[in-house]
Inverse folding.
């Protein structure tokens, strides 16, 4: 008994010490604020389970998404690549979706029905989401798979166009096949962030071809191992929808109202990126330090991304770097030298990790009223 007590005591001390050296806990809910006129839905529309080349059962994907408080996921199994087929035969290719739906039925999580059309370059990989029957997408010719997806009113996006296994320079190559799909209204989006890779060239293509900007995890293992343990949240697409429903999510994706988010990088069209960052920062207090003309502004970041800013004002700072970071969920106090007492100022900052185009970062303004 005594021995047991000692053992459990030392285990307690051991785990307490472990706790000190390891700062990242389990999965945290991911939060990003709504923007004026729209609800911000957090979606990961590219994930895998054992029903293609993933390593987990679909129910785990639902549980992971619930732990991170996502609004929508899609299990996009490779139609043409089925390494577990001998162990898990499933003539009905809707099986992963149906299992996820069953698991999620008591929850608010939206399960989007999807499939990955998997070909060698130049066709590459694409996800068709909001489909109704995955079996009908199984075709010998890639053209027929895309036509079948269109017939189901699917939203289709090009996966990891910069993937070095298909594009050795690590840059996307827009082929005649994709040009044709875009022209036919069969390709609507493009991943600019796939797992840990953000490709500026893919963003350039999205803007040039008017494709919806996507960010996805493309996870095959566990979200915890790939992201949470490293202190990161998975790559997601923030979708600005009229409300939280499958139909509104689909409408917003077709309309291109998205920002891709990963590792404190935000990528999106300026019209959505700017309001997202503006809403992410709450001005908590603005007062002058007594007997000075130094304005103290307390800012809070209510998003799950660390925001790195650079001063864009004519004023300089007192005891702050011109480049500063407000951590996810954290606060920061800026001391602005306004040279005279003012009723208010325009706080103007460039978000250095928020891209609206390659090499182009968003500049955001807040009206600060002095108390
Ligand atoms: Zn995939």
């Amino acid at each position: 008994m005594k021995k047991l007590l000692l053992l459990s005591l030392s285990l307690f001390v051991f785990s307490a010490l472990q706790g000190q050296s390891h700062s990242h806990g389990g999965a945290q809910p991911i939060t990003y604020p709504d923007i004026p006129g729209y609800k911000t839905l957090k979606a990961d529309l590219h994930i895998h389970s054992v029903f293609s080349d993933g390593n987990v059962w679909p129910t785990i994907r639902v549980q992971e998404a619930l732990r991170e408080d996502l609004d929508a996921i899609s299990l996009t199994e490779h139609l043409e690549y089925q390494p577990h087929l001998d162990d898990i035969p499933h003539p009905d290719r809707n099986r992963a979706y149906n299992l996820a739906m069953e698991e999620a039925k008591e929850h608010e999580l939206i399960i989007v029905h999807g499939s990955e059309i998997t070909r060698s370059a130049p066709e590459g990989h694409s996800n068709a989401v909001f489909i109704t029957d995955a079996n009908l997408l199984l075709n010998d010719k890639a053209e027929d798979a895309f036509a079948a997806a269109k017939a189901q009113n699917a939203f289709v996006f090009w996966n990891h166009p910069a993937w070095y296994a298909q594009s050795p320079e690590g840059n996307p190559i827009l082929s005649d096949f994709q040009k044709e799909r875009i022209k036919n209204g069969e390709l609507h989006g493009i991943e600019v962030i796939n797992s840990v890779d953000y490709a500026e060239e893919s963003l350039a293509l999205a803007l040039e071809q008017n494709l919806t900007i996507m960010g996805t995890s493309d996870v095959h293992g566990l979200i915890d191992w790939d992201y949470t343990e490293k202190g990161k949240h998975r790559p997601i697409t923030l979708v600005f929808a009229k409300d939280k429903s499958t139909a509104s999510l689909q409408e917003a994706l077709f309309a291109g109202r998205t920002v891709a988010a990963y590792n404190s990088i935000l990528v999106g069209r300026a019209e959505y990126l700017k309001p997202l960052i503006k809403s992410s920062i709450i001005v908590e207090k603005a007062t002058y330090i007594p007997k000075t003309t130094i304005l103290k502004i307390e800012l809070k970041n209510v998003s799950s991304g660390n925001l790195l800013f650079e001063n864009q004002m004519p004023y300089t700072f007192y005891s702050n770097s011109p480049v500063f970071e407000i951590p996810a969920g954290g606060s920061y106090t800026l001391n602005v030298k306004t040279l005279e007492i003012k009723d208010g100022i325009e706080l103007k900052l460039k978000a250095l990790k928020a891209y609206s185009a390659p090499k182009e970062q968003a500049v955001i303004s807040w009206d600060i009223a002095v108390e």
About this structure: The radius of gyration is 23 Å.
